[in-house]
Design brief:
589 residues, globular, alpha/beta, binds arginine, Isoleucyl-tRNA Synthetase, Domain 1, Gyrase A, domain 2, Rossmann fold, 52% helix
Length: 589
């Protein structure tokens, strides 16, 4: 289902073509001056340059060709050659009707569907997630939902950090506490009990301790490095042990992710790339892509075109002890994905501060011919800051755990629900459920509404407010429509033929028509805030319409039926949009 802007673009493009000009000049979009017109086309100015003619004259000729178009109610030429168009109420009504019956709330599916890997979340084994993990989870999960909605095949991979020094630190830490565990026996044969020897609490205690100790105690650090090397070389007891660490961590991580309505298709990790590394390293060495340097193997990724900028440093593929790091596992993971998933595109939703790492890995992938660099995208994001404009910290300066943040959001949401007295006739279980949904909406929307690449300030009080550009405000708008439709149904009133008459109805219809553009922009730029903007403007336009007209209480039957149908279309699109943002609308609140 094409939106009005594209429908008009086709007509306008044909008019340009009929004058011997490029059809692309006929691009039509929503007007910058909604008080003057609904849509505009600025192509006459560019056409004038190309054809060395007067732009107003061209605009006039285009207007002549378009003026009888059935969708156009009014057409004027303004300024140097802007074409301003107002569309007919019938056209608007038709579009709102289509949105109401469309399963996709009026959105097009992508023309060429792709298989897309989205690497997001990126939690690390044994380390509790902190506020820095929020953005990757929420942005990545939203891009996954958006791509799926558009018809792409998406594989979301958590890409666990389960292969570095932290694993050796955990092994050594545990061996000090429980040296008799069979996993530490060098003759361990690989059969091990199903039951994990540690809980998440153990891991959360062991890791900071071991990590601190390996900073201050050199011989301890060497033991941790040795354990890491032995693990990577395949020592059976260590491999079995880290499998337990990974499983225990995943179970704990899932609890935090569930609160954020975030899920993954794959829980692979850095360690899964390990079996591919020997062949990959051989391949890179044999083709001269990896070079020996001071006993280590490095890959050079600088290019002539870097001249004038700071040259991109080489990265270490294999260190002098034969150990591999973050670059090697990421490169081997590309090889793995190419073999097992055969994707067309891979997106990495990771903190902006890792930009250099990804540039290096992507260039190496291109250089080795594993996967084209332009199909590998680092989707970086800014930082969540506190009041002081610095990365958000707890009062005593520690990092904020994601689980604490989720809890704070829930408590604040419950407080707001209490204040708004929304819950007077709801059961305790319902209040809890609504609290979770309000907290979810608050957390996800407040993150997603920001331009991805910018930092934002964490302000729970503002995020959970039922007013302003917030998740809870949007839920409230959707729930209000649900209540209104329930009331109408209970009074035996049904939706009917849509009429678009008043200014607020027109505005609402035009806003509904913008869904496609918002989705396209969000996808093209990998930026969910365009969709946030759309759903917010839709809720605002609905509010204005709601304030201007009686709906369920409208006496005129045709008007009431029309307005109920408009409400249905708005609700459908609002819920669809919120669902893509990972926000769940309650039935009541
Ligand atoms: N675990 C990493 C970290 O905490 C993020 C992983 C991102 N994904 C990747 N393929 N490197 O920084």
């Amino acid at each position: 289902m094409a939106d009005i802007a594209s429908e008009l673009s086709v007509a306008c493009g044909a008019a340009f073509e009929a004058l011997g000009l490029d059809a692309k000049l006929g691009q039509v979009r929503r007007s910058d001056r909604p008080d003057l017109s609904d849509f505009q086309c600025n192509g006459a100015m560019a056409a004038a340059k190309q054809a060395r003619r007067n732009p107003r004259e061209i605009a006039g000729e285009i207007a002549d060709k378009l003026k009888d178009h059935p969708a156009i109610a009014d057409l004027t030429v303004a300024g140097p050659g802007f074409l301003n168009m107002k569309v007919t109420p019938e056209l608007l009504a038709q579009h709102v009707t289509d949105i109401g019956v469309s399963e996709r709330a009026g959105a097009d599916a992508a023309h060429d569907t792709q298989t897309i890997v989205i690497d997001f979340g990126g939690p690390n084994v044994a380390k509790p997630m902190h506020v820095g993990h929020l953005r990757s989870a929420v942005i990545g999960d939203t891009l996954k939902r958006l791509c799926r909605f558009l018809g792409h095949t998406v594989i979301g991979d958590a890409h666990l950090g389960d292969w570095g020094l932290q694993m050796g630190q955990l092994i050594v830490g545990l061996s000090e506490e429980q040296p008799d565990l069979i996993y530490f026996d060098e003759k361990f044969d690989g059969t091990y009990p199903d039951e994990a020897p540690v809980t998440m609490d153990d891991l959360a205690r062991l890791y900071p301790k071991a990590s601190a100790k390996s900073k201050s105690d050199e011989s301890y650090r060497e033991r941790c490095q040795l354990a890491t090397a032995e693990l990577q070389a395949g020592r059976a007891g260590y491999r079995a042990l880290i499998r337990h660490f990974i499983n225990v961590s995943i179970a704990a991580l899932k609890v935090d992710y569930e609160r954020l309505n975030v899920s993954f298709d794959l829980w692979k990790g850095e360690s899964d790339a390990d079996p591919l590394i020997p062949d990959m390293v051989e391949d890179l060495k044999s083709r001269g892509i990896a070079e020996e340097s001071d006993g280590a193997w490095i890959v050079r990724v600088a290019r002539d075109t870097d001249k004038g900028k700071t040259e991109m440093p080489p990265f270490i593929l294999l260190n002098s002890r034969g150990g591999v790091g973050y670059h090697a596992t990421d490169l081997a993971t590309i090889v793995d994905r190419v073999e097992t998933i055969k994707p067309d595109l891979m997106l990495y939703v990771v903190d902006q501060r890792q930009a250099l790492h990804f540039q290096q890995v992507f260039r190496a992938s291109e250089k080795a011919g594993y996967f084209a660099e332009d199909k590998l995208e680092h989707i970086g994001f800014g930082t969540v800051n506190g009041d002081d404009g610095k990365p958000f910290k707890t009062r005593d300066g520690g990092t904020v755990r994601l689980s604490d943040l989720n809890q704070m959001a829930l408590e604040e949401a419950e407080k707001r629900i209490g204040e708004a007295n929304l819950s007077s006739d709801l059961s305790e279980a319902e209040v809890r459920d609504i609290g979770l949904k309000v907290a979810l909406a608050a957390t996800r929307f407040s993150d997603l509404q920001n331009t991805r690449t910018t930092d934002y300030k964490f302000d729970l009080e503002r995020f959970t407010s039922f007013e302003g550009k917030t998740g809870p405000y949007l839920l409230y708008a959707a729930v209000r429509i649900k209540a209104l439709l329930r009331r109408a149904a209970s009074e035996g009133n049904a939706a009917g033929e849509i009429l678009i008459q008043s200014p607020t109805e027109r505005e609402l219809a035009l806003q509904l028509d913008g869904f496609n553009t918002a989705l396209e922009q969000s996808f093209a730029k990998r930026m969910p805030h365009f969709l946030c903007e759309h759903v917010y403007n839709l809720a605002q336009a609905f509010s204005a319409f709601y304030a201007a007209h009686p709906i369920a209480a409208e006496k005129d039957e045709a008007l009431r039926a029309s307005r109920l149908a408009i409400c249905e279309a708005v609700l459908k699109q609002l819920e669809t949009g919120l669902d893509i943002l990972g926000i769940i609308t309650p039935e009541r609140m």
